[in-house]
Amino acid sequence: MARDQRIEPADEMPDGYRRTMVRQIAQHAHSEIIGMQPEGEWITRAPTLRRKAILLAKVQDEAGHGLYLYSAAETLGADRGDLTRRLIDGKQKYSSIFNYPTRSFADVGVIGWLVDGAAICNQVPLCRSSYGPYARAMIRICKEESFHQRQGYELLMTMMHGTPRQREMVQDAVDRWWWPSLMMFGPPDAQSPNTAQSMAWKIKRHTNDELRQRFVDMTVPQAAALGVTLPDPALRWNEERGHHDFGQPDWDELKRVISGDGPMNRRRLDRRRRADEDGAWVRSAAAAHAVRTSRAAGPGTGGLDGEA
Ligand SMILES: [Fe+2]
Ligand SMILES: [Fe+2]
């Protein structure tokens, strides 16, 4: 680790490192999959064929991200079915951001711009995470996230050049998503007890507050170019620090949302549970097929016997 080499699946590692890694990767995978819901609700209501094609591609990318990440967790000995069960039973978390509702199509743009933008700030340093399979998955994920951010920004730019009503929709969505986006970086460093250990293990490369600052500095000029106002009266450039000063989100709200009491928590998990139940027959059919083909390919099995 000191030489900045990657830890690979067959390497020895402390139990704590393995547990932390499985927890982080699972939480990340769950976030990608649950994250399909808020925007997925708009696929049938996209205003044009072009917007629908873009949104479909984006939501499918998130499914792919979930799959790369569950695979990365499996290299540490975790079982994907078991991780999904723990998500559905509320024993493992996903990002708080997906517990907020999407009220208009402008939310699709703002999620791309702010939520995928915050995800990029969080995830680019993870491409150098000490666990090899996770770091490699992040490289591809980050490329796709930057497409997500671009499509969101382009949608908002189009709406800002539209009617006064469209500009209002964009501002309203920015007002609702700004603070939850800042919460995506987690609690302030002083209240983040695991940060030091994760930094020592090079799972994490920057603290929550450092990443939050980076996101704010990146986003302020983009907001100005769009012509929207970020809903924070304390937001201003600090010449001395060379960074923007900004207000603190409502950390009690973050605690409530993480512990299951956000506006959409119940609905997101219900939907995930139903999808899992509806997909059970596909999984058992695929498993039966896998058994049959491996028997057919194996020595002295006598070929396809149809029983599984
Ligand atoms: Fe993603
Ligand atoms: Fe994304």
Automatic annotation (TrEMBL):
Species annotation: Actinoplanes utahensis
Mind listing the GO molecular function terms for this protein? Answer: phenylacetyl-CoA 1,2-epoxidase activity
The record's section on SUPFAM superfamilies has: Ferritin-like (SSF47240)
Q: Where is the composition biased (Low complexity)?
A: 286-297
Q: Which GO terms describe its biological process?
A: phenylacetate catabolic process
What is the name listed in the Swiss-Prot or TrEMBL entry for this protein? Phenylacetate-CoA oxygenase
Query: Where is the stretch described as Disordered?
Result: 286-308
Q: Which residues form a coiled coil?
A: none
Q: Do you know which Gene3D superfamilies this protein is assigned to?
A: 1.20.1260.10
Gly residues bias: where? Answer: 299-308
Q: Which InterPro entries match?
A: Aromatic_CoA_ox/epox, Ferritin-like, Ferritin-like_SF, PaaA, PaaA_PaaC
A Gene Ontology CC term for this entry?
A: cytosol
